[in-house]
Recover the amino acids of this structure.
């Protein structure tokens, strides 16, 4: 489904001063809104996610990116909860982004698309809630960049939610994290197929740069232990004994990364990668004095979760969030979940993780229905 949430007469004014005269948002919903409208959960997706978080798609069975968490009988139980998941602003799966047509020019925005801020995502999310007739959320849930959106929303509009769940997220990227994203963007922008961001008009595309960006990012989503378990130093199966070393995919892990880069090209856009990764770089909500004061007054319950082997957004990132919220008087629980699978653990069926989310949301529902 797609909704036009902003139009020329009522444009979207962005946090950094830009403006969009039309914003279309692709979204999916699962389950049913209760008569009391007290069971709505809003799901915010990560950097390369989309609106299809779970269930069926286009009449066919296509598992969503959070299928382990959302569905009948699952921690976000669609027999109990009404779940909303949009493709975020700046994305490339149906929501207005830098590869969309600019209604003022009839051309793709390209790099003329305005630079975004985490607060802009929240503004659009809240407009979607209004469009759907949902006044208050039982919970806002997200992992990685999704968790960063949840944090922004919690700090700016805590009255919108009874609870918030931040998983494998950060309130401020380290220099190392920014560096990874910088190299990824350079790979894209230096690709001859980039054409200063107007590759859509040329029929070309920066496929090599985008694939390399994805390959490098994918390494950061896995732990060293996960890579060692899955690949070790195994040669690629196509190799034959006695074949001399070369510069192809000689090792299984090389072949795997090449595959990840290639399949990524079918579902993601280079410009969205640039814009969304840059939003993460500048995210630092606690830099604003008193940032958590409103949440401390409203006091929605908060769950913050990290994973023991996540070195991209490790436990120190989550503990920083917990510390800032606790100082403001926000009721917050923290869980560091044992996992050998790295940052991608938030997308995987890890029993202790799933049980933690299930228990938190069940408690949140009991609280609002007292």
């Amino acid at each position: 489904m797609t909704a036009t949430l902003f139009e020329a007469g009522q444009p979207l004014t962005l946090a950094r001063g830009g403006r969009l005269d039309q914003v279309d948002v692709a979204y999916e919903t699962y389950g049913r809104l209760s008569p009391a409208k007290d069971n709505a959960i809003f799901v915010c997706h990560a950097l390369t996610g989309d609106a299809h978080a779970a269930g069926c798609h286009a009449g066919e069975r296509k598992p969503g990116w959070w299928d382990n968490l959302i569905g009948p009988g699952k921690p976000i139980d669609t027999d109990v909860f009404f779940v909303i998941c949009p493709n975020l602003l700046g994305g490339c799966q149906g929501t207005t982004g830098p590869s969309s047509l600019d209604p003022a020019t009839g051309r793709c925005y390209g790099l003329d698309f305005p630079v975004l801020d985490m607060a802009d995502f929240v503004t659009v999310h809240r407009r979607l809630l209004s469009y759907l007739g949902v006044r208050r959320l039982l919970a806002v849930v997200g992992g990685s960049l999704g968790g960063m959106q949840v944090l922004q929303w919690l700090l700016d509009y805590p009255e919108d939610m009874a609870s918030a769940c931040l998983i494998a997220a950060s309130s401020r990227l380290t220099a190392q994290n920014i560096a990874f994203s910088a190299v990824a963007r350079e790979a894209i922008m230096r690709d001859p197929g980039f054409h200063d961001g107007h590759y859509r008009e040329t029929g070309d595309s920066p496929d090599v740069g985008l694939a390399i960006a994805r390959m490098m990012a994918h390494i950061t989503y896995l732990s060293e232990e996960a890579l060692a378990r899955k690949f070790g130093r195994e040669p690629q199966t196509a190799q034959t004994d006695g074949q001399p070393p070369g510069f192809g995919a000689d090792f299984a892990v090389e072949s795997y990364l090449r595959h990840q880069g290639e399949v990524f090209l079918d579902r993601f856009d280079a410009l969205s990668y640039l814009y969304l990764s840059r939003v993460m770089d500048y995210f630092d909500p606690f830099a604003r004095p008193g940032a958590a004061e409103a949440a401390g007054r409203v006091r929605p319950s908060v769950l913050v979760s990290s994973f023991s082997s996540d070195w991209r957004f490790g436990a120190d990132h989550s503990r920083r969030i917990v510390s800032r919220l606790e100082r403001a008087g926000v009721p917050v629980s923290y869980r560091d979940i044992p996992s050998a699978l790295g940052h991608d653990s938030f997308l995987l069926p890890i029993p202790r993780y799933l049980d933690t989310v299930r228990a938190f949301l069940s408690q949140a529902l009991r609280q609002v229905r007292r």
